[in-house]
Protein: Transcriptional regulator, TetR family
Organism: Actinacidiphila yanglinensis
Amino acid sequence: MVNWATDDDPHRRLPLSTSPTAPAAPATPERPVPARTGGRAGKRQAITQGARTVFGREGYSRTSIEAIAAEAGVSTRTIYNHFEGKDQLFSDVVHDSAGQVADAFIATVEKQVTGTDPRTDLLALGRAFVGQRTQFPEHFAMIRQIKAEVQHFPAAVIDAWQQAGPQRVQQEVARRLQQLADAGLLRIPEPARATVHFIALVTSEITIRPYGSPALGPAQVRDCVTRAVDAFLHGYGTDSAAGAPR
Amino acid sequence: MVNWATDDDPHRRLPLSTSPTAPAAPATPERPVPARTGGRAGKRQAITQGARTVFGREGYSRTSIEAIAAEAGVSTRTIYNHFEGKDQLFSDVVHDSAGQVADAFIATVEKQVTGTDPRTDLLALGRAFVGQRTQFPEHFAMIRQIKAEVQHFPAAVIDAWQQAGPQRVQQEVARRLQQLADAGLLRIPEPARATVHFIALVTSEITIRPYGSPALGPAQVRDCVTRAVDAFLHGYGTDSAAGAPR
DNA sequence: AGTAAAGTACAACGTGCATGGTAAATTGGG
DNA sequence: CCCAATTTACCATGCACGTTGTACTTTACT
């Protein structure tokens, strides 16, 4: 009876002030950390896993509960025993998935961005960023679905997703760029804009790529990032270009 | 009985070699240019118009023929008198709409890019590009739907769309950038990449913007383009940045 | 092994929707 | 004003799917 995905009046707003991490559930001593890989909770995992796959491949409205059940190797009834319905399942999957992707990104950056010289750092940062898309294709397929259907999901779901994923990732990129700027290695008048510009450049070729064409190979991706970083550093102007930025 | 949108084996390929502009239909002397605004053909116009609106707002699978009929002010039966079915209607609408948008873009560029100085030209080019998105919101809403659902449309439709719209637009941008490079006002080693980078930069802030947030005002959009163009020209590096591009 | 929780198969209900048919109404051109 | 093409209202069919109830089976822990 919820069915917000076809709701007539979407986009109620949500106060973002509340602590992003919900107050830890009150202990639940009944189930003292059941093996997360085990049977009962394992089913839940399988469902979210399968749901991510199918939602990403089919889109929200095309995805049937039956298809998710098949993908996850459970019965449809089990899905309804774990989740209220299709919509709640979807928000859960999106939220979880976004969190995992953001975690992976931040971990990679931590490991790969070594601080030797600015260009190397930017290359590592850029590769980590586009690496998300190649490592989690299902997730980003799902994200494309959301972007197309924002209007049909309640604002609370969108906000939760944004906070769990994209905002954390973007903040991490901004932090790294700022470090370089603070060291005098970049000239960044407006950090927010520079961050967006950096992300846009490194993802440009895989975003604007003609749709339906085969995915780029790893070597090509590396090349794209390299050229994007060089464009980010030096631009395409010549000395004779009039009107310096400032 | 077509229903390719839920087809199991999508992505048949199509030979792109055939002339992009279909050979002009053989005169059809039966209907010597009936007033395109008039009754009979006017209905068709109303249908594609309404279809664009609803498809953009709802997405392909959520859109019902009934909704399109209501939006267009016709009966559902009339839609089936003009189009084979939902899928053919969709491809037609996408193709037409993409063509119109590309036409408008090229016309604007022709008028606005005056060739006085490189920065001014790039600003005009950038504004024309993002102007598409503000002038044709319904079209781009529909494009987002396609991007999310590429896998569910036959390759022929995708290719036709790409040729009618995005490729023409991108080619025009490339041409203008090349002119500046030829005049020694830009340093462009790889034209295709530079084009993509330019497009990515000018659209960055409206693309990466947190979803669900209110659209930017005209003044903000101008500002975005200005900063993007400056980034495109000069980049964010300092003199001390190691590893020049070449 | 035994028991309670969890999972499954199956059937059913209601809905929304694509698509087609048909006969009456409308409209635009001559 | 008349005719032919077009549009419309209405009905019918068939399918896909979300969701729930129920009774049976499996699983996991003691």
